[in-house]
Amino acid sequence: LGKCLLSPIVLAAYAYNRSLSELGPGGRGEDEPGVLCQLFAFLMAFFGLAPTLLLLAMALECWLSLGHPYFYRRHLTRRLGAALGPAAGGLCALFCALPLLGFGVPMQYCPGTWCFIRMAGGGPRELGFPVLYAGLMGLLVVAIGACNVSSMRHLYGMARRQPRRGAPPAAAAPRMEELDHLVLLGLMTVLFTVCSLPLIIRAYMGAFAADINENADLSALRFLSVNSIVDPWVFIIFRTSVFR
C-alpha cells in the first residue's frame, strides 16, 4: 500500500520535472512545503512506523505461541488478532500526524522528489518529533529482536529434542521444519535491524550533533525502504517446497 501510494507521486515529479511543492502548492508560509509534500512526509513516516508495529505484533505472537502456549491458547483469539491491525494503523496515523499540527516540520529534500520530517536544524519544536520517532523505532527494533531471539532459542530447543538420524522419516520431518523457521527468523531479524538503524542514527545525529547531510538522510530512507521490499521475498522463498 505504501509503494502504491508514494511511487506515483515521485514518478509524476520526474515526469513533469517539478518538485513536490511545485506540484502541490498551498503551504501556509513561504518557507513551508506544499500540501503534496506534507502528505508525502506523513505517508513516509506512517509507512515506516506502521509495518514495524505490525512486525512487533507478529514477533510477540510467535514468542507467546512457542514459549507460553497455554497463555497463548487461552488469551489470544482471532478477534484480538483482527483488531490489532486497525488499532496499530490508527495509533500510527495519530502519531505521524503530529508534524501537521505543529510538532515537527515536514521538509522537502533534494532533488525535490521526496519529503520527510526535518531531521536536522531548528529548535526543540522542529527536532522533538524526529527524536521521538527515532526513539520509538529504536524501542520497536529492540523488542522485535528480543522476541525473535527468544523464539529462535525455543525453536532450537525443539529441534534438539527431535530424534536424531536413523529415526523414521515421519519423526525427523518436524526437525527440518523447525530449523527452516529458525533460519527464516534469524535472517529477517538481521535484515530488519540493519535496515532500520541508519534512520535512527541519522535522526539522533541531526538533533544532537547538528549534522545536516541530505545525502545521508536519503540513504537512511532507502535502507528503510529496502526492508519492506526484501522481507516478503525472503519469507516467500523460505516457505516454498523447492527450498526445503
CATH superfamily (homologous) name: Rhodopsin 7-helix transmembrane proteins
Q: How many H/I helical runs? A: 8
- Provide the gyration radius in Å: 21 Å
* SSE arrangement, N to C: HHHHHEEHHH
Alpha carbon gap, first and last residue? 31 Å
Helix fraction, binned, reads: over 70%
Briefly note the structural class of the backbone.
Answer: mainly alpha
- For the largest beta sheet, what order do the strands appear in spatially? 1-2
Counting DSSP E segments of at least 2 residues, the number of strands comes to 2
The CATH class is Mainly Alpha
SSE diagram, text form:
Blueprint: H1 2-16, H2 20-23, H3 35-67, H4 69-75, H5 78-96, E1 106-109, E2 114-117, H6 124-161, H7 169-208, H8 214-238
Antiparallel strand pairs: 1-2
How would you describe what is shown here?
By secondary structure, this protein is mainly alpha-helical. 74% of the residues lie in helices and 3% in strands. It has a two-stranded antiparallel sheet with strand order 1-2. α3 packs across α4, α3 (35-67) packs antiparallel against α5 and α3 (35-67) packs parallel to α6. The two termini are 31 Å apart. The mean pLDDT is 78.
For this entry, give a set of tags.
single chain; mainly alpha; two-stranded antiparallel ribbon; 8 helices; 74% helix; elongated
Summarize the structure.
The protein has 244 residues and is mainly α.
